[in-house]
Each structure stands twice: as C-alpha cells, then as structure tokens.
Amino acid sequence: MIYHLLKKELHSIFSTPLAYILVSLYSLISGVMFFNLLVTYSDGIQVVNPEMLKGISFVDEVVLRLFANMNFLLLLFIPLITMRSFSEEYKNQTINLYWLSPVKEWELLLAKQLAALIVILSFMAMTLIYPMVIWGVGINDLSLLVQCYFAILLNSLAYISIGVFFSSLTENQVVSAILTILSIMLLWMISWGAHLSSNYYLSELMAYLGITVHFERLLRGTINSQDLVYYVSVIFIFSFLSLKKLGMRKFI
C-alpha cells in the first residue's frame, strides 16, 4: 500500500513544474554560493602573509560553509515542498477518498514524508559535482563529505516532519509554508539564545533544544548519541502530532 501511495505522491509532485523549478533554482543558488566561496578563498590566500596561511583551512572556509549554506537554502525550499502535502488534499477534498479506503493514517503520512525526502535527494544529487571539485583541490577525505551529507539528511528529515505536520493543520498552502519556516527559524533562534543566557543550565537546555548546535557537530564529524536522539525526537514528535491530527478523520 505504501508503494502505491508513494508512487501517487511522486507523480503528483513531478507532474507539475514546481518540483523542477525548485530543483533547478536550488542547484543554481548553491552553485553560485560554491563558486563565490572558491573565489573568496582563492583571493584570500593570495593577499595574506605566507605565515598566516596555516590558519586558513579550505575545509573550514569552503567545504563546511558550503554545506551550512545548503542547509539554509533547505529552510526555504522544504516548506515549499511540504506545504501541499495535506493542504492540497483538504482543498480539493480528495482526503475523503483516503478515509473511505482501507489506507491507514501512518501509511499516508509515511508516503507523504518519503515523497518529500525523494525530492530533497534529487536536490542533493545535483550537488554531487561539488565533491568532485573539492577532490580536485586535494581534499579527498571521503568521510568528511559523507558526514556533511549525513548532517544535511538528518536536518532535512526534521524539516520535512515539521512541514508535513503544519500542512496537516490547514488547507492554505501559504499558511502551512509560513508556519513551517517560522518553526524552523525558532529552532535556530533557540540555539542563538543559548549564547546570551548567563545561566549555565538554561544555556545548556537552550543549546540542546536548538537545532543549530546539533547540525554543526554533525557537520564537523562529531557524531554522538545526544545529537542522534535529538533528531529522532524531533521527527517522532512532529510525526506523532501529524498522526493525531489525521486520526480525527474529519470528512470535508
């Protein structure tokens, strides 16, 4: 059943120009960012003193910044993908067809989330040319690139679960997208607020609740159970809330 639901979702997504526009736009913007990072790094090492070159790392200045910028783009692009997940079903009243069928709520939710994830993976596939360029300058550490893409993947899964949840609350796609963006930004701002608090315990709590600290640690290869538990918790909580909303099975 999930396979047929997923097939239907992918056909719905890729039968409209929106998916192709988003993939192309993401590739263009991230490509421009990557080019600018390379140019800035190249110009920078030519003007600094040779003694200072030891403090300038290509990984820090180009690779990690590139993936941080890619993550920022996902903040804007994922809500545009997930906003139609359930909102469009509500608006067109096609949600009633699911409620009249033997489809279970978790199957429908999983199909929606997997469809959004596949779109994001198509985004990532378009960026695989960057590792080739990075390898060309001598950074051939495969584990570095794997951990960067792994961090992007976990963040994407968290963003998708948030976006699908807000899409399940309203038939207005714009409202769904705005609520998703604001919620993700809130997770970012909590991390920033941790640096402003003078209370150690409050600061540690805010740092844990915010998503930025966990993403940065994963990006640098510092993978620990605390970060993995955080992402699993975010995905589980918003998926659970989506299931509770779908469990109402309200006919429109």
Write the layout of secondary structure elements.
Elements: H1 2-14, H2 17-47, H3 58-82, H4 87-92, H5 95-99, H6 105-125, H7 129-136, H8 142-167, H9 173-194, H10 200-209, H11 212-219, H12 225-246
Helix pairs in contact: 1-6, 2-3, 2-6, 3-8, 3-9, 6-8, 8-9, 8-11, 8-12, 9-10, 11-12
Largest sheet: none
- The low-pLDDT segments are none
Q: Treating each run of at least 4 consecutive H or I residues as one helix, how many helices?
A: 12
Large-scale geometry: globular
Radius of gyration using CA atoms only: 20 Å
Give the number of domains.
1
Percent of residues in beta strands? under 5%
Secondary-structure class: mainly alpha
Short description:
The protein has twelve helices and no strands.
Describe what you observe in this structure.
This protein is an all-alpha fold. It has one domain. About 80% of the residues lie in helices and about 0% in strands. It is built from twelve helices and no strands. Helix 9 (about 175-195) packs antiparallel against helix 10 (about 200-210) and helix 11 crosses helix 12. The longest helix is centred in the first third of the chain and has 31 residues, at about 15-45. The model has no long low-confidence stretch (mean pLDDT about 85).
